[in-house]
Amino acid sequence: MNKVLIVGNVGNVSKQDKFTSVSVATNESYKGKDGKWVQKAHWHNIVTFGKTAENVSNNIKKGDLVSVEGSLSYYEKDKVKYTNIIALNIKRLNKKDENTDPGPDSTSSDNLPF
Questions:
Q1: Is residue 13 part of a domain?
Q2: pLDDT tens digits, residue range 53-90?
Q3: In CA terms, which of 32, 67, 106, 114 is 20 to 30 Å from 20?
Q4: What DSSP letter does each residue of 6-40 carry, written as one string?
């Protein structure tokens, strides 16, 4: 089974011709060897296609708290290995700002009328 579920904050949304990519930061906290708490951020590359990509580019913005459900995808370019999350569902978890356009909170392809 290849399934990923993360919750984090959006750093960047980049719309391309056939897809939309989103960077999402998740946080990790642990006690270091000295007994002090250490905070560490992990950045994840999220890729969306089709209606999900369209909904993400229209409704998700930098700073939004989102949950991402998808699968891992690996590729290698110039002898460097990369990992992406291919998102099937991205849902905004924070409340919408009063100044934003109304739109669906969920960008799941499950919400499509067809």
A1: yes
A2: 999 999 999 999 999 999 999 999 999 999 999 999 99
A3: 114
A4: EEEEEEEEEE-SSEEEEEEEEEEEEE-TTS-EEEE
